Amino acid sequence: MLEEVVIAGFGGQGVLTMGLIVSYAGMMENKEICWIPSYGPEMRGGTANCMMTVSDKTISSPVLSSFDTVVAFNQPSLDKFEPKTKKNGILIWESTNIAKGPKRADIKAIAIPAADEAIKLENPKALNMIMLGAYIQVTGVVELETVKKALKKVLPERHHHLLPQNEKAIMRGMELAKQAMS
User: Fold this and answer.
1) CATH architecture of 2-181
2) Axis-axis angle for helices 15-28, 144-154 (nearest 10)
3) What residues pair up with 112 in beta bridges, in sequence order?
4) Per the confidence metrics, is the pTM higher than 0.90?
């Protein structure tokens, strides 16, 4: 198993946190992990992405130019990374805020209205958790139970009271992905 992914959006959307949770979950499952964060000097509101490799074998290089999976939280990210999605790859995109969806017919594009769903859950900050749920549902790269354990490690202890809300958002993302794929 080898999964090369980029998760991209604006700073403050939880892009790096989502990648970190997947990375921790992969490590807990004894997988090889490479997580490379990247963000503009503006941080919040600027561009942010993280490239990740999850593998059951040694990772030869952390440098990626194309991806098995792209998770796009905003239009600039979709525009930038859609062309870098491998043929027959997966593009999971946040359909509430992205006006122009993917154009390629040689990839599997999955629209997730995460921002709308986060508002329905009365937790607008849960957008990234919804996208995380969709990602693990679609790829199966890590197990849900491991993600829950990783979330507890990544989330600062002062925010552990939010774990049930985050887990609910992850589950909602998984449900949305199932619906989008059927």
Assistant:
1) 3-Layer(aba) Sandwich (3.40)
2) 120
3) 94
4) yes
> How far is residue 114 CA from its own chain's centroid?
11
Residue with tokens 């290089």, as numbered in its chain: 61
CA distance 33 to 52: 7
* 41: pLDDT strictly greater than 80: no
Tell me how far CA of residue 171 lies from CA of 138, 148, 159, in angstroms: 13, 11, 19
What are the domain boundaries of the chain? 2-181
